[in-house]
Design the sequence.
């Protein structure tokens, strides 16, 4: 109840960032308070020789972090895809989960659009299918360092010769020209 009250106060006062108010999910539901979330990913060393990719969901209102997944770097696919085959499965499930929050409804099928498996049924996923979730939420930020976004999300790096910046057409020496 405290978070819902905080959300209503911040919406009323206009203190959330403009990207919240401009977000398509927020605009599509003007009479409903939509909780703002952020996604954070980063590789975290846990020994001298190995690290794990941590994926967190952050409640923007409270800054509480919720660990979604941990993936050992050593176990990433080595077929030449730079680990993307491994990360694709993880990110597909994460997207499926975030889409359920944006729709405010428990999913009606698995993340790969296949019917529920026996294991899903035993876990109670099929029983909740199509039921409303208690809150609607949407991601307004994807956080992490640029190197992580390049490695895990496949975005261009600052060395990219075509267009490393998503906000402008700068490249090469022009990248640092703020005009």
Sequence:
């Amino acid at each position: 109840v405290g978070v819902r009250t905080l959300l209503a106060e911040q919406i009323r006062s206009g203190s959330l960032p403009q990207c919240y108010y401009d977000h398509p999910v927020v605009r599509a539901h003007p009479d409903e308070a939509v909780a703002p979330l952020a996604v954070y990913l980063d590789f975290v060393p846990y020994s001298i020789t190995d690290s794990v990719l941590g994926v967190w969901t952050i409640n923007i209102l409270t800054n509480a972090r919720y660990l979604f997944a941990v993936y050992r770097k050593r176990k990433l696919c080595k077929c030449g895809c730079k680990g993307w085959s491994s990360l694709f499965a993880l990110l597909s499930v994460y997207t499926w989960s975030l889409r359920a929050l944006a729709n405010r409804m428990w999913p009606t099928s698995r993340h790969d659009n296949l019917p529920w498996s026996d294991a899903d049924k035993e876990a109670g996923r099929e029983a909740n299918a199509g039921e409303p979730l208690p809150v609607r939420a949407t991601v307004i930020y994807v956080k992490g360092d640029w190197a992580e976004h390049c490695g895990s999300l496949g975005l261009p790096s600052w060395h990219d010769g075509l267009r490393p910046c998503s906000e402008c057409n700068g490249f090469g020496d022009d990248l640092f020209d703020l005009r």
Observations:
- The two ends are 47 Å apart (CA to CA).
- The first strand starts at residue 34 and ends at 45.
- The chain has a mean pLDDT of 86.
